[in-house]
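Protein fold
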Amino acid sequence: SFYPLSSAQKRLYVLHQFDPSDVNYNMPSVLQVSGPLDVKRVEDVFRQLIARHATLRTRFELIDSEPMQWVEDTVPFKVEYTKVQVERATTDTDQDTSTDLDTATDTTISQEAQERVRQFVRPFDLKAAPLLRVGLVDLGAQGAKQASQHLLMLDMHHIVSDGVSMEVLTDEFVRLYGGEELPALRIQYKDYAVWQQSETHQEWMQRQEAYWLGTFRGGVPVLDLATDFARPAVQSTAGDTIEFGLEREVSERLKELASQTGSTLYMVLLAAYTTLLHKYTGQEDIVVGTPIAGRPHAELESLVGVFINTLAIRNYPSSDQSFLDYLQGVKEHALSAYEHQDYPFEELVEKLNLTRDTSRNALFDTMFELKTLEQQELQLEGLT
C-alpha cells in the first residue's frame, strides 16, 4: 500500500520535479578498502541492508496529484563492478584530478579510476527502487605490501537518506560483513511519516509553529553581502571550497570560552560567525540557517531515512554590545530554536508566504554547521 511522504521528503520530491536530471541531492561517498575484499560478501551484505531498511525498497509516485511512497517487498540489486589498471605514483602536481582522492598507498588513484568515480554519480529515477547504487572499482594490488585495493562507491538519493543514515549504513555494513547479527528494527521510516500526519503530532506542531511565526513577525531581513559580481537572476549551485585550519591553542581557548559562559562550542562559533557577517554588512538583524539531525526519539536513531531539518536562527548583533553579552543572546536564541526544532522548515517558508526571489534562498543566504565527526578508519578481517 501507499504511504504519505514526510515533510522533508515532500520538499525533496518537489525539488526533484524541477530538474529530474539534477544530481544536487545525490549523496555519494567513496571508501578506499585495502586488503582481501570478498566481492560476493559485499553484495550479500547490501542485500541484507536493503531487506532490513524499508527506505531502501521505497519508490515514489503521484497518486491523484499527491506524491506518495510505496515500499516494495523485494527490489533488483547488483553491485556495479569494474577493474582498472594501476598507475605508479606521479609527480605531476598540476593535474587537479590527482588530488581528488587521497590514498594510503604510494600510488595515486589512476585517471581511469577517477573517471569511474565521476561517472558513478548520475540522476536517480524516483519511481524505481532502490534509490541506492553501489559500485566497486578493483584497483589491483598496490603499495609496498602489494595489498589489493578497492574503491567502494555508494550513492543514494537524499529523499531516502541523510548524514546520520550514512553513518548507520556504514556501521551496519561493517557489522554484517563481520558476520554479526543485527537486532530487528521495531519501526520503519514510513511509520514516522504516518505519525507526522497524526492528530497529536499536529497539535504539537501548532505550538511549534507559533514560536517560528513569532520569530519572523515583521518580515525577514535580507543579508546584503558586498560581492565582486552582480548577483545572477537565478540562484546557481556553482561554488568552491575554501579550507583552513585553526591552531590547537585557538581551538582550546574557544572551548574554554564556551565552558566559562555556560554555552557550547556551536554557540560560540555561531556568535563569531554572525559577528563576522555583521562586520561585513553593518546589519544588526541576521538570519543564518543551520541543519539539525531531526531525530527526537531514540527509536529513530538507527533508521535510514531523511530526518534532517533546517533551523533559521535569527540574531541581533550590534556594535554597542560586548561579544560576551552578544553570546548570551545567541545562546538563548539557539536554545529556543532547538526547543522548536520539530517544525518543518518547508512549512515555515510556506506559512510566511514570502515574495519569492529566484536569486536567493527563502529565509537566509548563508548556513552554518558544526560537525564533530572524525573520519574513522574501520578495521575488519584484515581490511582497512
